[in-house]
Amino acid sequence: MARKPTPATPRAADTTDAAAAKKASAALTEMSKRSAEVAERFADGLAYDRERVVAEAKFLMSQSAEAMLEAGKRLVQIKENEPFGEFMSIVQDRLGLGERSARAMMQAAVKYLSPALESKRQSIAVLGKSKMFDLMVEADEALADLAEGGTIAGKTLDDMQAMSRRELQAALTDARQTIDAKEKVIAKRDAKLAKLEEKAELPQEAAMLADIQERIRALVAAALQLGNLVVELDGREISEELRTMVNADCEYAAQTFADILMRAGIPVQFQEMVDPSWMKKAGKTGRKG
Fold first, then answer.
1. What is the pTM of this model?
2. What is the pLDDT of residues 26-41, one digit of tens each?
3. What is the pLDDT of residues 202-219, one digit of tens each?
4. Cα–Cα dist 119/91, whole Å
5. 109: closest CA among 147, 148, 169, 65?
6. Count of C-beta atoms within a 10 Å radius of residue 105
7. Where are the alpha helices (DSSP H) in 6-118?
8. How far apart are the C-alpha atoms of 148 and 163, rounded to whole Å?
């Protein structure tokens, strides 16, 4: 009589595989369930399509930024047409905004709606309003270049879009600190160059000074000749009219010279020349004696 075959005993590996498959199936079922719930709540029942959802997110982010800029424009209009107290009442009570938020929105509108950035704002708006606030301190030229494919802090527009706001802030801070350090180095270098150039100019300055001194001596000699002429006239019998005319001409020459010195920033105490303080002191001492 033939023996009946004995049922094979399940191997441990087969048992493990079956358990893993069952677990994976349960996880997939749970994921499908959650995906359906998400689609129902957030996607109006549409199946998930990554490219479509990313494109929609970009569009809505830009709309949010555009809406912020448009609101900023209105805030600027209100501020320019209302007393400050009334403006703040509208901002806080009717619009539910804080003063800081309102000010940031107005600054953003002024910045991104300027002639230099008007045509670029839609490209920059994909970053969203928070990142646009962070970029407001950048130069208009730098932002325009960013919108055309350039970089700020070594980051393109796409890079910034992929970053979190905190990551962008950190990158901007590092770049600005680097720029500040470079500017300090450049400033020190420029100061050194200025000193070297100043030293190089010294021989020219010495020659100029010698020329000025020579001209002043010639002027002094001419003044002495004029003084001698006046003394000669004083010893002669001349009409009062001629005396008055000579006196007026001498005063005119002295005043013209004084004006030239004043324009050149060279102070000259003419009163001290005519009536020196040391003579006044000597006179007082003499009277006491």
1. 0.47
2. 766 776 666 666 666 6
3. 666 677 777 777 887 877
4. 29
5. 65
6. 23
7. 12-42, 50-81, 84-89, 99-112
8. 19
